[in-house]
Write a structure and sequence with these properties.
With 107 residues, the chain is mainly α. The chain is built from 6 helices and no strands. The chain binds heme C (HEC).
Length: 107
């Protein structure tokens, strides 16, 4: 029984990292990488900065990507970010979650 639990826990870890990887694909396919770099601020804040602002708040990050909450990282530049939400809003839930996991993996 203990062995089974260990195997299941291992599978969950693998599934978790596969999800973050999938999130990277969603990130690239939707042109997010053009304005967001992993660690340096460019046109948009770095993924690290976003991950720190949303640490432990995955649900809020998903809500932001659905256009349901207000920006909190750099609101003065939000006019550049808000049109991007037209792309993320229509993504299926599992893609949005994978995208959020990918962003949050940068803290
Ligand atoms: C044209 C440039 C540009 C593109 C493309 C872009 N962003 Fe942004 N993004 C910004 C800027 C500028 C900000 C800072 C304003 C803000 O905080 O909303 C930002 C902020 C954010 C934030 C922080 C929101 C907050 O609470 O402040 C998230 C999350 C984010 N972007 C995700 C994405 C994702 C996912 C994509 C791809 C679908 C994307 N961005 C594409 C420019 C861009």
């Amino acid at each position: 029984m203990r062995k089974l639990v260990a195997v299941l826990a291992g599978a969950a870890v693998i599934a978790g990292s596969a999800l973050a990887e999938n999130g990277q694909a969603v990130f690239q396919q939707n042109g997010c990488a053009g304005c967001h770099q992993p660690t340096v601020d460019t046109v948009g804040p770095s993924l690290k900065k976003i991950a720190q602002a949303y640490a432990g708040k995955k649900d809020e990050l998903v809500a932001f990507l659905k256009g349901a909450t207000k920006p909190m990282v750099d609101p003065a530049k939000a006019p550049m970010m808000m049109p991007q939400l037209n792309r993320t809003k229509s993504l299926p839930k599992e893609k949005l979650e994978a995208l959020a996991d990918y962003i949050l993996s940068h803290k």
